[in-house]
Each structure stands twice: as C-alpha cells, then as structure tokens.
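Before surveying the methods themselves, let us examine one representative protein, written as a sequence plus integers encoding its fold.
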Amino acid sequence: MSLFSCRSIPKGVDAVKNFQKERYLGKWFEIARIDFKYERDMNNTTADYSAMSNGKIKVVNNGYNSKKKKWETATGKAKFVGDENTAMLKVSFFGPFYAGYNVIKLDKDYKYALVTGKNLNYLWILSRTTTLPADVRQEYTQFASHVGFDTTRLTWVEHNK
C-alpha cells in the first residue's frame, strides 16, 4: 500500500504545529462545511471535545436534521496520528474505522478553527460562538481556497434552535 493511500490529510496541506489539546477541548459551533452524507440537512451543528482517561478525545456531535425534524447525536473518539503538538488526528464514530481530522488553521486564542479530513472534499469552519466576524470569514475562506479547497461548495450552517 502506498503512502499516498494512507494519508489522512490532503497533499500539500499542513496541520497546525504547537497545538495545545487542552485549549482545543470544549464546545465548537460549525459555521460552514463542505456538505457530505452524514451531515446533509443538518443545522445547529456542534462538536464537543473532552479528554478521556486513556489519552483519547471524546467527540460528541449534535445537530438538528431539518428533513427528519429531530435532533441527532453521534459520539466517537479521536486520537493523534503522531505527537500531540501537531493537530493531525483521526476520528472514529463507527468501531474500528477512522477518518482524518486535521486542524489546518487556528487563531491564537483558539476561537476559530479550519478543519479538513483526508482530502479536499472535507472542510469545516468552526467557532466558539454561533457567528463568525466578517473579517475572520474572509480570512479563513481565502486560506482554504489558497490551499486548494473549492469554497463555493461551502454550506453555511444556521444556528437558530
């Protein structure tokens, strides 16, 4: 198996260095995403990260499915691919199957984050609040576009419940 097929981050994209896990833990609001099947029709989406005693991170994702008219929750776990100083993780919601979770941009106060999966089809903009200042929105979408993401595909999430 080639190294490329095992990648958990898009080629040419780097995960944040000098990452501090403790500062990243807590609740994040999903501001925008490139839509995919597990989040389709979801709004009011959040992710809550907490430390587990085994060193992994508990992940609880919540969102309101507007088609089914109900709240949905997915609970999983994440672990670092290498050392904890690099924001390159893998996350699992389905038993032994893991997917890439890579923080590729993060402000110094840990208020805004740009996260990708294994390729350019996965992108999330996260915030500690339900809104994103216009200048931050522009900065993060420009950064994403610069490293190869098609930001016209972003779905902007409503937080109204």
User: Anything to note?
Assistant: Confidence is low (pLDDT under 50) at residues 1-5. Residues 62 and 73 are 5 Å apart (CA to CA).
